[in-house]
Design goal:
Blueprint: E1 2-4, H1 9-12, H2 15-23, E2 29-34, H3 55-70, E3 73-79, H4 104-117, E4 121-124, H5 134-150, E5 167-172, H6 176-189, H7 196-200, E6 215-218, H8 223-232, H9 248-254, E7 257-265
Helix pairs in contact: 3-8, 4-5
């Protein structure tokens, strides 16, 4: 089960991993906590009449197509996008948005989905949300709370029989070392690195996220599906944007994995890992 804040997050964070496990026959469920209603149109080609005024419907259509491409199931949790506040000082969050809903409410709803789907592994974001969007931070809080509560029969008894998820992972995608290795490959080829300015702007004060990574999943064969799923979110993803700046052949050669941090586990496993199901008995994995 991969828990995400908005539609399109499932295609930019751990998408190739989910596509790989789905292709290998595992049941994979993406849970999308909000509808992404406050997302702007980030692809100029989609800034056309009839899109902005039906954004919630369009984003659902995009999500359905992305899930089809990845080969995963998908469930909406039904909360309202908080938007990304900008300015100094930042404006208050909109009333009724996901980030302001009491934690208990989305936790109960996610517990219900966990107990119904009965996953062995969950993925979500770390305490910083991957980046500090209020919905991403709330997604982390809800996921951790639901991981703990789902296995406790005294918590939310109306949500179904208790189910203990065996492992909880944080997805890590913003890795400076990855871009540095891409740049080295461009230098070897005698070509300019298309993300040089982006790399120069990288803030380094938070340290090296690779120090937190425990698990690397080889999934480069599924990078094309990841990219196709990203492009399915046409209002949010510019096909000429930075997601696609580095050609697939370089990505597959230089960095063929997606990265995760084992945050909580109820089974014994050895670090580093190359499989999210490491330590879970074969008979349990589905």
């Amino acid at each position: 089960m991969a828990v995400h804040a908005h539609p399109d997050d499932e295609s930019s964070k751990g998408a190739a991993m989910t596509a790989r496990y789905a292709a290998e026959g595992h049941e994979v469920l993406v849970v999308t906590l909000t509808g992404g209603e406050r997302g702007d149109i980030l692809n100029p080609a989609m800034d056309i009449p009839g899109i902005r005024d039906r954004m919630p419907e369009v984003r659902r259509e995009e999500m359905a197509e992305a899930a089809r491409i990845l080969g995963v199931q998908q469930r909406w949790l039904g909360f309202v996008d908080s938007g990304l506040p900008e300015g100094d000082p930042k404006p208050p969050l909109p009333e009724g948005c996901f980030a302001l809903v009491p934690l208990e409410e989305p936790t109960r709803k996610l517990v219900e989905v966990i107990r119904e789907f009965r996953p062995h592994v969950m993925t979500t974001y770390d305490e910083n949300g991957g980046y500090p969007h209020p919905d991403h931070i709330r997604c982390h809080e809800v996921s951790v709370a639901a991981y703990e509560a789902a296995g406790d029969p005294d918590r939310f008894p109306e949500a179904g029989p208790a189910w203990k998820v065996q492992k909880l992972y944080y997805s890590h995608g913003f890795i400076r070392k990855r871009l540095e290795l891409f740049r080295e490959e461009y230098e070897r080829r005698g070509e300019p690195f298309p993300m040089e300015e982006w790399l120069k702007r990288w803030r380094t004060e938070q340290g090296d996220i690779m120090a937190r990574v425990t698990t690397q999943i080889t999934c480069s064969d599924y990078f094309p599906k990841r990219d196709d799923a990203l492009r399915a979110h046409a209002t949010q993803i510019d096909p000429n944007g930075s997601f696609f700046a580095v050609p697939l052949d370089i990505q597959q050669k230089v960095w063929p994995t997606e990265e995760f941090e084992l945050a909580k586990t109820r089974v014994h496993t050895a670090i580093p890992e190359t499989d999210l199901f490491a330590g879970i008995e074969d008979g349990q994995v589905r």
